[in-house]
Amino acid sequence: MSRQRLAVGTFGEIGYLPAAGGRSVARARYRGWDGRTRLVQATGETRKAAERALKAKLADRSLFQPSSSRLTVDSPFPDLVAYWLEDLDLEDRLSKRTRQLYEQNMQRLVVPAFSNLTLREVGVARCDNFLKQLAKQSYSRAKQARVVLRLALGLAVRHEVLPRNPIDHVSRLHRPASTPNALTPAEVNAIRAGIAFWEAGRSPSGPRPDGQLGAIVEVMLGTSARIGEVLAIRRRDVDITAAPPSIRIAGTIVSHRGEPTVRQDHPKTAKSRRTVAIPSFTAEAVRRRLAKLEDPSLDALLFCSREGTPLTTNNVRRQLRHVMDLAGITGVTPHMFRRTVATAISAVAGVDLAAELLGHTDPKITIQHYIRRNEMVNPATAEMLERAFARDA
């Protein structure tokens, strides 16, 4: 192994030795923050396993550069990406879904524009121009790209590869003006009618209905829950005998790439775990579903496949689009029911109760993204103006 002097907090070239039972030993010289250089080693079933074990052991000792100690300002940008992704795995703080999303956004949105650059060339002006050009195509994509760029370049700053994070100085992204869209009561009833027509078997095309889509919509309308949260409701989460009846939102459905769809034992955020009193139309839909469940266990899902496995959110969305197309109704998504509920509750009882029902920590989120603006000015103004400017007799 190389005997060059190592920078503090870094390790040298990794060497490998055979061990008993066909296992492998990975070892490297590591210079700790006390300035002393030590030989550290770890054993694994294969070379790769031994290397991973060695890096995990070094991570427990102190901060270090996980991909190599040779990352500099002249390293290619893809080297930083690999460095950053490995660091995310070592920290192991992100959910699997978020980790996959970060890597996807980095590889799809950022790497194509920066792959031929060194870290020295990734400056404020280049990042600013990149994000502005991307924002012309999509504000959402630009925002996602900025997040992963900030994280990766921030790691380079913390490990003293770069002197500053360029993303801290780029122009602010401006979200295009938009108004949350919600359904009217008449539109809700038209959707119900379209689903009922399809579930009655009167539609000549599409998959054979199993009667769940209509009940799913009624639960979304009666709880404001996200589609994943609705599909994660179990028998134990439902109390139809109470006055009023209620549903506990305590999980969500997740589909990781290359893995089976499963129920996650917590919803999106801590405040999203809540118990919601439900209206009679939702309670009736739940009673019908409970009567059809063959699995008597408390953990049986209220909505599931014929084998009792979780439904995927994508399949429910696809089914809803198909039924709405047959009914000639456009623009309906599961999340629109959530906005519809927020708008209805806010109109009667105010935004704070709407935010509580949706499980939001900040009512500003509810106002900005979920409540349709009421364009009708208080009609009391007509009477006031009548008194002020009425024509003389």
In CATH, the topology of the largest domain is named hpI Integrase, Chain A
Profile the largest sheet: 4 strands, antiparallel
CATH superfamily of the largest domain: Intergrase catalytic core
The average pLDDT score comes to: 88
CATH architecture of the largest domain, by name, is: Orthogonal Bundle
What is the number of helical segments per DSSP (H or I, 4+ residues)?
A: 14
What does this structure look like?
This is Tyrosine-type recombinase/integrase. It comes from Sinomonas puerhi. Residues 75-157 form the Core-binding (CB) domain. Residues 178-390 form the Tyr recombinase domain. There is one protein chain. By secondary structure, this protein is of the alpha+beta class. It has three domains: 10-61, no CATH class; 77-169, Tyrosine recombinase, N-terminal domain (DNA polymerase, domain 1), CATH 1.10.150.130; 185-369, Intergrase catalytic core (hpI Integrase, Chain A, Orthogonal Bundle). 47% of the residues lie in helices and 10% in strands. It has helices at 47-61, 77-91, 96-114, 124-137, 139-158, 185-199, 212-223, 227-231, 280-292, 313-327, 334-349, 351-358, 363-369, 380-389, and strands spanning 10-11, 15-18, 24-31, 37-44, 238-239, 246-249, 252-254, 262-264, 274-277. Strands 1, 2, 3 and 4 form a four-stranded antiparallel sheet that branches. Strands 5-6-9 form a three-stranded antiparallel sheet, with no helix packed on it. Strand 7 and strand 8 form a beta hairpin. Helix 6 packs across helix 10.
